[in-house]
């Protein structure tokens, strides 16, 4: 469990289309083996410490003639942002993926002073 020792908690969120490969015949649509797409996300303002980030698929478009194999996660989380990463492997063909994210963490109180 992540504990926040501040009475001020901040939340930031967003949504984005990670890729649309069936239109441009990209690697997620035509490739095989391990494949990865990463998108850098910047928070609207910095958190006081590393926040907790939750990501989820908002939409996926996959071919139905093979198993749907996919992993989506937040990596390299810092106070100012993170990398939203989607991975697939084997012969899975992915046409398009959209994701949503939510970050929750402590933020500085506007009236808090840093004396030292």
Account of the 3D structure:
- With 116 residues, the protein is mainly beta.
- It contains 2 helices and 6 strands.
- The chain has helices at 21-24, 27-30, and strands at 9-20, 35-42, 52-62, 71-75, 81-88, 94-106.
- The chain has a 3-stranded antiparallel sheet.
- The longest helix has 4 residues, at 21-24.
- It is elongated.
- The chain starts with 8 loop residues before the first strand and ends in a 10-residue tail after the last strand.
Radius of gyration: 18 Å
Number of DSSP helical runs: 2
Q: Can you tell me the residue ranges where pLDDT is under 50 for at least 5 consecutive residues? A: none
Strands, total number:
6
What integer is the average pLDDT?
Answer: 87
Broad structural category: mainly beta
| Percentage of residues assigned to helices | under 10%
Distance between the termini: 30 Å
Q: Tell me, briefly, the overall form.
A: elongated
Proportion of residues in extended strands: over 45%
H and E string: EHHEEEEE
What summary fits the major beta sheet?
Answer: 3 strands, antiparallel
With strands numbered from the N-terminus, the spatial order across the biggest sheet is: 1-6-3
Task: Compile the SSE list and pairings.
Layout lengths: L8 E12 H4 L2 H4 L4 E8 L9 E11 L8 E5 L5 E8 L5 E13 L10
Antiparallel strand pairs: 1-6, 2-5, 3-6, 4-5
């Amino acid at each position: 469990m992540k504990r926040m020792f501040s009475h001020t908690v901040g939340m930031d969120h967003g949504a984005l289309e990670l890729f649309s490969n069936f239109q441009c015949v990209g690697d997620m649509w035509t490739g095989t083996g391990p494949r990865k797409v990463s998108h850098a996300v910047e928070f609207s303002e910095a958190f006081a410490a590393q926040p907790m980030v939750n990501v989820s698929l908002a939409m996926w478009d996959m071919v139905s003639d093979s198993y749907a194999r996919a992993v989506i996660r937040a990596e390299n989380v810092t106070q100012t942002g993170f990398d939203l990463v989607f991975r697939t492997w084997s012969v899975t063909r992915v046409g398009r993926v959209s994701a949503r994210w939510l970050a929750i963490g402590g933020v500085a109180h506007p009236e808090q002073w840093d004396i030292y």
